[in-house]
Amino acid sequence: MMVLARIRREAAHLMRKLTGEKARARRAAFAAFDAAVAGLRPGDLVIDLGANVGVFTEAMARSGADVIAFEPDPHAFGLLSVRLAPWPNARLVAAAAGDKAGSFQLYRHRDFAASPDRRTTSSTLIADKRNVSAAHAVTVEVVDFVAFLRDLDRDVAVLKIDIEGAEVALLERLLADPVADRIGQIFVETHERMLPQLASRTAALKRLAAGRAKPVINWDWH
């Protein structure tokens, strides 16, 4: 049954590519993100989970809004720190955001050593993601994101999530907590093709989110 379900998902993905639906959805997601950033003002708060080297973090910081960016990969965090140095409204957190706190292994791309600047985009807390290896793994801190939001006690205008498979457990916990009502928009990249075991949980999250007024979730990010 699992093999059949995966074949169906891959066929649906291929059809979306062939018809151009995937490309249109991605363009629409980027346009929606740009519009959300354009609407930010000083005093607003945006949070970037999986900031990587800060391309989108910097765009949000330019708005004048307060920015909190989480990035667990030490190599990416160094590049992020350099990029965001001119922006005092950006707070950088050298940790992952997750559904629970602790110290965990961060698995890097199997070819990480050949091109670390580029390969940090694949770094993940999920050991069985298809393109990573334990050979370059590092231990990182993970922050309980729901507890972090409770302590922060602020409305969040925009939340970007690109955390390579860990988004499922985080969103399951987040959407079950009242603090989610304080978030305006979420832009999330999902990874059910790289991690097929997350497909049913991702689909369940989409059904759950469809019945909520807030946050508004865009599932086609990146």
Automatic annotation (TrEMBL):
SUPFAM superfamilies, sorted: S-adenosyl-L-methionine-dependent methyltransferases
Record InterPro entries: FkbM_mtfrase (IPR006342), SAM-dependent_MTase (IPR052514), SAM-dependent_MTases_sf (IPR029063)
Domain Methyltransferase FkbM: residue ranges: 48-197
MF terms (GO), sorted A to Z: methyltransferase activity
Keywords: Methyltransferase, Transferase
Any Pfam family the entry gives: Methyltransf_21
Annotated GO biological process: methylation
Protein name stated in the entry: FkbM family methyltransferase
Organism of provenance: Tabrizicola oligotrophica
